Amino acid sequence: MKNINAEFKNLSHALEFDKILSDIASYAIIEKNKSKILSFRPLNKLEDIKVRHTAVQDALNVLTKKTSLHFVETSKISNYILNAKKNKILSGNEIFQIIAFLEIQKKNIKILQQGKTLAPNLSKVAHDDALLDNLLKDIKDFLDQKGQIKPNATKTLEYLNLQLENLSNDIKNKLDVIMSKYADNNIIQEEIITLRNDRFCLSVKSSEKKSIPGIVHNTSDSGQTVFLEPLVTVDMGNDRQEIFIEIKKEIQRILEEMTSIISDAHSEIKTAIKSHNYLDEIFAIAKCANNSNSQSLITYSDKNPFIKKEMAHLKFINACHPLIKDAVPLNIEIDSTINAIAITGPNTGGKTVVLKTVGLLVSMALSGLPIPAQTGTIIPLYDYIYCDIGDEQSIQQSLSTFSAHIKSILTAINSATNKSLILIDELGAGTDPDEGARLATSILDHLIKTNAHLIVTTHHSEVKKYAYENNDIINASMEFDSNNLKPTYLLTLGLPGSSNALIIAEKLGLPKAIIKQATKKIPQNELNYTTLNRKLKARIIKLENMQIILKNLKIRLNKRVQDLNQNFNSIKNLSSEKNLHLLNEFKKQNELFSKNIAELEKKHSIEKNKKIYEEAQKVKEELEKIIFRKTNYSIDQYKIDEEVFVPKLKVIGKITKLQTNDRIEVTTASSSINLKIDEIDKIDQNDNKSKKFNSMQKNINFNSIDDPGMEVEIRGKPIDIAVAEAEQFLDRAVRFGHKRVKIIHGKGSGKLKKIIQEILEQHPLIERYENAAFGEGGAGVTIVYLEDIN
Questions:
Q1: Domain boundary, last residue among 465, 489, 508
Q2: Other C-beta atoms within 10 Å of 37: how many?
Q3: 78 and 115 share a domain?
Q4: 269 and 325 assigned to the same domain
Q5: What's the average model confidence in pLDDT over 695-722?
Q6: How far out from the chain centre does Cα 647 lie?
Q7: Fewer C-beta neighbours within 10 Å, C or N terminus of the chain?
Q8: How would residue 588 be classed by pLDDT, with cut points 50, 70 and 90?
């Protein structure tokens, strides 16, 4: 297997991978980690990739709980441990730093251990060590918060400090007596006792220093004052110095003992440092990803193994360039039927961004970093990534653009294998257009034969034609809004692009006569091609919209069949003639649903699928008629506590009040509703399965296709109505391709929120959901992330 790192250094800048690493490194606390992160490269082994991805996902999970770990620089700690191992006595401050580090790491471990379900992989890496716990117990009580040995650290030290204090007080008392004696003789400069050379002294005027027998230890800067230790306290001062010596010896003995304890645990402390450094590295990646603008991030895991050893498939679903604000999502795919894509379109239309996005996200994913894309994305484990974007090399080497271009491509030709990814910007550019086009198709011929995955951009029409005629490569184009004269940055697979020069010129006001004359000069076959291309594009858009509806319908129909089967099993033993007829009708409708789904899977034509919609809607209506048969009743035919069906809410309720104006109060599981008599139906009391059937009903709206917007407000509405509106909103939101929507249910008692989130938990089209952030409504709003059914 080729080493994917071999020439990656040259590509890192072109792909802007170095900027990603720089952003990540800024979140690291430990300097060594900053350097390590900046040297990240795609990994060669899938297991190594998985380890980093799963660790980062754990860190992301921890961060979502508004919890984070604390990190400190460990380089000095490592040096202290090494010195201790070499029997170099550590200072109190050095030992204090080791203790502080171990306590921080212990807190980090506690956070991870408490969240094992959130961080199962990291909790294995970071675990408690009994030896370190004992070490902390043994030494941390010897030091104060400034890293100094406490005066009472040992009984000996406590006794010595008490002696020192008593003797110091005795000396001060004697000095007070002397100051009082000479206070009126103008001998004392200032009535204070001061320390000089660790001896207690009086402030005496220089001219009067012989008036008090003693030893001068220092003078003031002005020379007007001497600091004198009277002879009567010299012996006491000497005793005090001897106590000092004993205290220093005891402190040194304590430091030696603590250093020995640390030395004995050096291996465990080194392990703690290694774990701390690793967590800092992983959380730097996670923090950077968490603070990005990406709404969706994916990591490799057993549940989402999107990185494959096989080369059959490259697929990005709603992938975004992480460095571009408000980037248009990219959807691109190389499946087993092709191995190359040729992207065409106008300048500044986003072709180069597509190449950079693919190259960058592949590099990130294979380096173990989360990527901004959605589930369903697939990336092969490439052995080599080659990228030729821009003319950076020509500037560095004083080569022409064309020469640099060819030299770069030569590297790919010599190095690419069937497990490589090759990205070439403006293939065949920098020379005569005709020669460039012929050269481009010849290069494509050669590279396609390697079976590498290949994506190129070009302006050459010959390349478009080549892609049409060659089964191993397809055209793709960058869309352009000719009305607003702006690129949309959307990639369309299967259709070549065009420069749109005439359209743009006309919109900008170029005389129509010139446009008309230019059009006449275009060969007829090119005009036909352009017209056909636009028609195909419109058709593709229409089919894509229909595909969303079809897939959504299939999911809902499958769910309905499951409901029908459950209901069928629950009533199949009914014996009366009436219920036997009901059973037969259920069988008939169930068979019809199965047939509809089979037709849906075939997808022969849009017209046929429209017919299926209509059939499904009829079946839905017939099912309701079967279970709840509408009959006109007067109010006196109803009674209190009788169960009735409310068709417009699709629920069963109980009558709680009969009113004289032909209105009835019905209480459901969640609310009381005042209804007209014709708004309810009687239920056959002998059919105790009706309620069960109704509880399984889901409201499907096959006809409404209006865009529902990005949020629905159901706050304050009866729960049954609120639930129905929420489900209909989600159904339509999926059809229109919305990925993130809001359900505004309010706070209140929390009952509506609980019911909504229970529905979301079981909904087949919901990827995940979460409470909104404080600025988006907090607990009163649920954010829903919808599955991509494209």
A1: 508
A2: 24
A3: yes
A4: no
A5: 64
A6: 44
A7: N
A8: low
Question: Which 8-state DSSP code applies to residue 340?
Answer: E
| Cβ proximity of 116 and 49 under 8 Å | no
Residue where a domain stops, chosen among 457, 490, 508:
508
Q: What CATH number corresponds to the domain at position 726?
A: 3.30.1370.110
Percent of the chain with pLDDT over 90: 43
Q: Which amino acid is at 521?
A: K
Total tally of structural domains belonging to the chain: 3
Looking at the structure, tell me whether residues 279 and 323 fall in a common domain: no
Top-confidence residue, 720 or 680: 680
Asked whether residue 496 is domain-assigned, the answer is yes
- The reply to whether 311 and 266 lie within a common domain is no
Amino acid at position 369, single letter: L
Q: Are the C-beta atoms of residues 396 and 13 closer than 8 Å to each other?
A: no
How does pLDDT run across 767-779, given as a tens digit for each residue? 889 998 877 888 8
Distance CA 717, CA 203 (A): 87
Q: What is the CATH number of the domain that holds 463?
A: 3.40.50.300
Are residues 252 and 240 in contact, defined by beta-carbon separation less than 8 angstroms?
A: no
- Taking all residues of the chain, what is their mean pLDDT, rounded to a whole number? 81
Pairing relationship of beta strands 453-457 and 340-344 according to DSSP bridges: parallel
For the chain, how big is the Rg over CA atoms in Å? 40
Give the tokens for residue 77: 């700690």
3-state DSSP assignment of residue 742: strand
Q: Which residues of 476-491 are buried (b: 16+ CB within 10 A; e: fewer)?
A: bbbbbeeeeeebebbb
Contacting residues for 455 by C-beta, under 8 A, at least 6 apart? 332, 334, 340, 341, 343, 354, 355, 358, 422, 423, 424
d(CA 515, CA 502): 7
Higher per-residue pLDDT: 218 or 390: 218
Ordered alpha helix ranges (H), 293-432: 351-366, 392-397, 401-415
CATH at residue 37: 1.10.1420.10
Of 676, 681, 682, 644, nearest to 662 by C-alpha is 676
Q: At what angle do helices 266-290 and 75-85 cross, to 10 degrees?
A: 170
Instruction: Place 339 in a pLDDT band, splitting at 50, 70 and 90.
Output: very high
Residue 202 burial class via C-beta count within 10 angstroms: exposed 0-12, middle 13-18, buried 19 and up: buried
577 DSSP assignment: H
Six token digits for residue 142: 């010897």
Q: Express each pLDDT in 589-612 by its tens digit.
A: 656 655 655 555 554 444 444 454
Tell me: do 500 and 425 sit in the same domain: yes
* Side-chain half-sphere CA neighbours of 498 within 13 A: 16
* Of 631 and 216, the one with more pLDDT: 216
User: Within this chain, do residues 362 and 504 fall inside the same structural domain, yes or no?
Assistant: yes
For the chain, percent helix, then strand, then coil, each to nearest 5? 55, 15, 30
Q: What is the pLDDT of residue 605?
A: 44
Q: What is the b/e burial string over 640-652, where b = at least 16 CB atoms within 10 angstroms of the residue's CB?
A: eebebbbeebbbb
The 3-state DSSP class for residue 477 equals: strand
Query: 787 pLDDT exceeds 80?
Result: no
Amino acid at 747: K
Output the pTM of the full model: 0.64
Query: Residue 155 domain-assigned?
Result: no
Residues 90-128 as b/e (b if ≥16 CB within 10 A, e otherwise) read bebebbbbbbbbbebbbebbebbeebeebbebbbebbee
In-domain check, residue 296: no
What is the side-by-side order of every strand in the sheet holding 781-786? 711-713, 740-744, 781-786, 766-771
What mean pLDDT comes out for the span 153-168? 96
Does residue 524 sit within a domain?
Answer: no
The contacts of residue 132 (CB under 8 Å, 6+ apart) are 102, 106, 265, 268, 269, 272
Instruction: Tell me the C-alpha distance between 457 and 455, whole Å.
Output: 7
User: Residues 312, 355: one domain?
Assistant: yes
Indicate whether 273 and 395 sit together in one domain. no
Domain of residue 358 covers 307-508
- Nearest CA-CA partner of 332 in 468, 425, 455, 426: 455
**Which residue type is seen at 101?**
F
